């Protein structure tokens, strides 16, 4: 039983300690300490000749290292049974042979009975030994005669609770977390371990059995390993039904004679669960430095975010004795609030498109799920700098993570590029110092002419850094993550290829009145070039218009998601290339929009034009923006930007259809993850739903703008390489089918059909660059809506 005070302490620390880890995935990992296990160096030379082994050539040696290891183990443990493991090898660099030996008792492996023998030049130089040293057990005939496990999950959690109590308890009995406590980091790690390994509702102890059914062991383990408490509770509530679905198939083992099976249909697994009878050791209840053997079902359990090797008692159905997660998080120590200042930026905050829409403000914070190390840190190994040219870091920073005081971090490298060069690593960046306050003047005085944006260069770089990181974080939260090819130097062990943070050039001197983004395949840096605009006096800086930055970054999004992260050639031309531009406009417009509807122009501040840089502003009114699919046939619409604005206009119509039905959310960011990694519904998502097997389904954004944001991104992942408008339309509709069961298909089709992209729209004679003859269609698929309210005279205004 977990002490009440420890439970209270855990609640007091969970928000702080686990929040720093960015909602880490749940990972079980614990086991008993073996009193006999240690590394040994022989006091006397142990040479091949000591065992009378023949000197003969063997794989470059004068002897067989495995034969020497076997003789050595026999000398340690007499006639006990063991096997030499196949993963033994000789290190080509050191010449040391590493021979691994596994103990066998009663034909079953002792899963923690291991000896590793290190051999060099025919001599044992060291060895580790955790073999069981007691009497060989016999199979019990009476459950009451069985040993009670001396270590299991309950013992482990009780110890964790005790440690938490000692770290955090105060004389008054109060449990506030003191950020200046010298053991803060220890307490944080303990709290995270407790949260992951200790269930809030432990399984009932149950009665001893001679041999537990392996399918029962597998299902019981899954209740403990389920990613969150809700899933575990759902499994428990429908236990009998889940158990009936399991099928057990006997298998044979080449290395063990103990029973082995495969168990199919275990909930929340990605494949069959393998189970085999084995032994594990726990401390002897009475004799010091001795262990007892526990008969267990050795389970290997594949899951979406974990790969477990678990040991469930074969005589106590609900007891988990030890477990190892083969998936190792690349743990990066997160900058602590008490050690590093929380960065603050004086910028036009997220949602303020440009200086004409509002004033700057001091803002801070990052999304801990998307950027678990923050915006100014990365492991040293991930930094593109050579070892002798590392940028300035705090002198007292001894962590394996580099904390930067400039606009340099895991997601974005932002700097000036006034000379328009390709070199960027050592370009100028603002340095906020130890206080981490990025606050710089903005003084575009009207009497200045020419290149006066240089006078506020540090502000421009800061704004670009801030906006690009916000884009990274929000796209991450909607699914542009490591596996799908996002832009990060370090991927935290979550898949994909790293070393590809976005290189952001502020006030790039290679051009004017433009911006661009280079998207190579995953694992190579994206590069954004932002330019000064000479369209007004004083000149304007594109870095300060968020919509332009969002548009450019979105090229990286759509290119990496369409056709896969390794293929950057799917949006090169024609309708596909045009949609690459349109998605950027769509997201830029969505991010700046508010609950009070209004039309929006693209790039109007930088270009100093009310209508912006497109042919029309984005509007629901056909008079203001008459674009339809057929518009692509008109002169001037073969270019990708013109094609893109038609696509963006269609998506704007679709989004506002969804807003009309589902309402508007002022905050596009989903809620932060809970300590156990679960994303709460809050007021952002609809209540969670589950499959019949208890698996939590993807959360559905409850508002129209957030739902559109999600469906458009999901559609990019579904569509083919070089998609047409029809492909992209159908992918979004399919995305809704996958996410919601198709409940929005009527509104989606209405939105597409309103601008001519109905089911019978056609393109004849299409060319790679976007030419051809198009036909608009304003109808809806038959039966798609309960009530057909297709506009009688074309699109609705």
From TrEMBL:
<keyword id="KW-0862">Zinc</keyword>
<keyword id="KW-0645">Protease</keyword>
<feature type="binding site">
    <location>
        <position position="581"/>
    </location>
    <ligand>
        <name>Zn(2+)</name>
    </ligand>
</feature>
<dbReference type="Pfam" id="PF02128">
    <property type="entry name" value="Peptidase_M36"/>
</dbReference>
<feature type="binding site">
    <location>
        <position position="551"/>
    </location>
    <ligand>
        <name>Zn(2+)</name>
    </ligand>
</feature>
<dbReference type="Pfam" id="PF07504">
    <property type="entry name" value="FTP"/>
</dbReference>
<comment type="similarity">
    <text>Belongs to the peptidase M36 family.</text>
</comment>
<keyword id="KW-0482">Metalloprotease</keyword>
<feature type="binding site">
    <location>
        <position position="555"/>
    </location>
    <ligand>
        <name>Zn(2+)</name>
    </ligand>
</feature>
<feature type="region of interest" description="Disordered">
    <location>
        <begin position="370"/>
        <end position="394"/>
    </location>
</feature>
<keyword id="KW-0479">Metal-binding</keyword>
<dbReference type="GO" id="GO:0006508">
    <property type="term" value="P:proteolysis"/>
</dbReference>
<dbReference type="InterPro" id="IPR001842">
    <property type="entry name" value="Peptidase_M36"/>
</dbReference>
<dbReference type="GO" id="GO:0004222">
    <property type="term" value="F:metalloendopeptidase activity"/>
</dbReference>
<keyword id="KW-0732">Signal</keyword>
<protein>
    <recommendedName>
        <fullName>Extracellular metalloproteinase</fullName>
        <ecNumber>3.4.24.-</ecNumber>
    </recommendedName>
</protein>
<keyword id="KW-0964">Secreted</keyword>
<dbReference type="InterPro" id="IPR027268">
    <property type="entry name" value="Peptidase_M4/M1_CTD_sf"/>
</dbReference>
<dbReference type="GO" id="GO:0008270">
    <property type="term" value="F:zinc ion binding"/>
</dbReference>
<dbReference type="InterPro" id="IPR011096">
    <property type="entry name" value="FTP_domain"/>
</dbReference>
<feature type="binding site">
    <location>
        <position position="329"/>
    </location>
    <ligand>
        <name>Zn(2+)</name>
    </ligand>
</feature>
<feature type="domain" description="FTP">
    <location>
        <begin position="82"/>
        <end position="131"/>
    </location>
</feature>
<dbReference type="InterPro" id="IPR050371">
    <property type="entry name" value="Fungal_virulence_M36"/>
</dbReference>
<feature type="active site">
    <location>
        <position position="552"/>
    </location>
</feature>
<keyword id="KW-0378">Hydrolase</keyword>
<keyword id="KW-0865">Zymogen</keyword>
<dbReference type="GO" id="GO:0005615">
    <property type="term" value="C:extracellular space"/>
</dbReference>
<feature type="signal peptide">
    <location>
        <begin position="1"/>
        <end position="17"/>
    </location>
</feature>
């Amino acid at each position: 039983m977990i002490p009440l005070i420890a439970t209270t302490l855990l609640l007091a620390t969970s928000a702080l300690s686990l929040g720093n880890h960015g909602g880490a995935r749940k990972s079980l990992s614990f086991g008993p300490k073996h009193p006999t296990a240690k590394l040994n160096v022989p006091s006397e030379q142990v040479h091949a000749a000591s065992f009378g082994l023949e000197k003969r050539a063997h794989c470059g040696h004068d002897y067989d290292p495995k034969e020497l290891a076997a003789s050595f183990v026999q000398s340690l443990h007499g006639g006990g049974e063991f096997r030499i493991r196949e993963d033994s090898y000789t290190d080509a660099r050191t010449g040391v042979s590493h021979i691994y030996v596994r103990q066998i008792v009663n034909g079953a492996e002792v899963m923690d009975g291991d000896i590793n023998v290190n051999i060099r030049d025919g001599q044992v130089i060291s060895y580790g030994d955790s073999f069981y040293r007691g009497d060989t057990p016999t199979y019990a005939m009476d459950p009451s005669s069985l040993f009670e496990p001396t270590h299991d999950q309950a013992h482990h959690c009780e110890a964790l609770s005790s440690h938490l109590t000692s770290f955090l308890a105060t004389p008054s009995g109060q449990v506030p977390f003191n950020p200046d406590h010298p053991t803060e980091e220890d307490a944080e790690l303990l709290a995270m371990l407790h949260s992951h390994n200790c269930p809030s509702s432990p399984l009932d102890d149950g009665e001893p059995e001679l041999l537990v059914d392996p399918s029962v062991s597998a299902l019981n383990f899954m209740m403990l390993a389920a990613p969150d408490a809700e899933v575990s509770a759902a499994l428990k509530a429908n236990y009998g039904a889940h158990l009936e679905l399991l099928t057990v198939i006997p298998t044979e083992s080449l290395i063990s004679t103990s029973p082995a099976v495969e168990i199919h249909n275990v909930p929340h697994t990605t494949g069959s669960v393998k189970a085999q009878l084995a032994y594990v050791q726990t401390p002897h209840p009475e004799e010091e430095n001795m262990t007892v053997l526990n008969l267990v079902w050795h389970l290997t359990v594949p899951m979406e975010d974990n790969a477990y090797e678990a040991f469930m008692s074969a005589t106590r159905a609900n007891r988990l004795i030890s477990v190892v997660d083969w998936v190792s998080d690349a743990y990066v120590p997160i900058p602590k609030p008490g050690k590093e200042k929380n960065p603050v930026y004086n910028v036009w905050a997220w949602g303020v498109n440009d200086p004409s829409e509002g004033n700057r403000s001091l803002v801070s914070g990052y999304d801990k799920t998307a950027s678990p190390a923050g915006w100014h840190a990365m492991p040293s190994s991930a930094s593109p700098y050579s070892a002798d040219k590392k940028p300035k870091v705090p002198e007292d920073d001894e962590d394996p993570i580099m904390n930067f005081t400039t606009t340099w971090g895991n997601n974005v490298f932002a700097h000036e590029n006034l000379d328009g060069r390709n070199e960027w690593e050592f370009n100028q960046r603002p340095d906020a110092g130890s206080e981490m306050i990025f606050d710089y003047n903005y003084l575009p005085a009207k009497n200045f002419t020419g290149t006066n944006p240089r006078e506020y260069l540090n502000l421009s770089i800061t704004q670009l850094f801030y906006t690009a990181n916000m884009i990274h974080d929000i796209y991450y939260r909607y699914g542009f993550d490591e596996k799908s090819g996002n832009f990060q130097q370090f991927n935290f062990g979550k898949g994909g290829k790293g070393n590809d943070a976005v290189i952001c050039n502020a006030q790039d001197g290679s051009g004017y009145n433009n911006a661009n983004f280079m998207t190579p395949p995953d694992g190579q840096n994206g590069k954004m070039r932002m330019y000064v605009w000479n369209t007004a006096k004083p000149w304007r800086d594109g870095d300060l218009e968020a919509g332009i930055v969002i548009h450019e970054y979105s090229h990286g999004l759509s290119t990496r998601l369409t056709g896969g992260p390794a293929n950057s050639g799917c949006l090169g031309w024609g309708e596909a290339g045009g949609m690459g531009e349109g998605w950027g406009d769509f997201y830029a417009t969505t991010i700046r929009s508010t609950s009070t509807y209004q039309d929006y122009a693209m790039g109007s501040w930088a270009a100093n034009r009310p209508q912006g840089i497109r042919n029309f502003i984005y509007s629901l009114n056909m008079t203001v923006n008459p674009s339809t699919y057929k518009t692509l046939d008109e002169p001037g619409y073969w270019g990708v930007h013109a094609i893109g604005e038609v696509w963006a206009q269609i998506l704007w119509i679709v989004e506002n259809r969804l807003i009309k039905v589902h309402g508007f959310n002022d905050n596009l960011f989903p809620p932060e993850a809970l300590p156990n990694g679960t994303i709460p519904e809050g007021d952002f998502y609809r209540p969670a739903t589950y499959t019949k097997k208890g698996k939590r389904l993807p959360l559905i954004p409850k508002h129209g703008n957030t739902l559109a944001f999600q469906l458009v991104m999901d559609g990019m992942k579904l569509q083919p390489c070089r998609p047409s408008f029809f492909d992209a339309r159908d992918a979004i509709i399919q995305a809704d089918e996958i996410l919601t069961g198709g409940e929005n298909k009527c509104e989606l089709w209405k939105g597409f059909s309103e601008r001519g992209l109905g089911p019978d729209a056609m393109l004849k004679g299409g060319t790679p660059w976007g030419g051809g003859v198009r036909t608009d269609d304003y109808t809806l698929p038959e039966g798609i809506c309960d009530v057909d309210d297709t506009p009688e005279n074309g699109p609705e205004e």
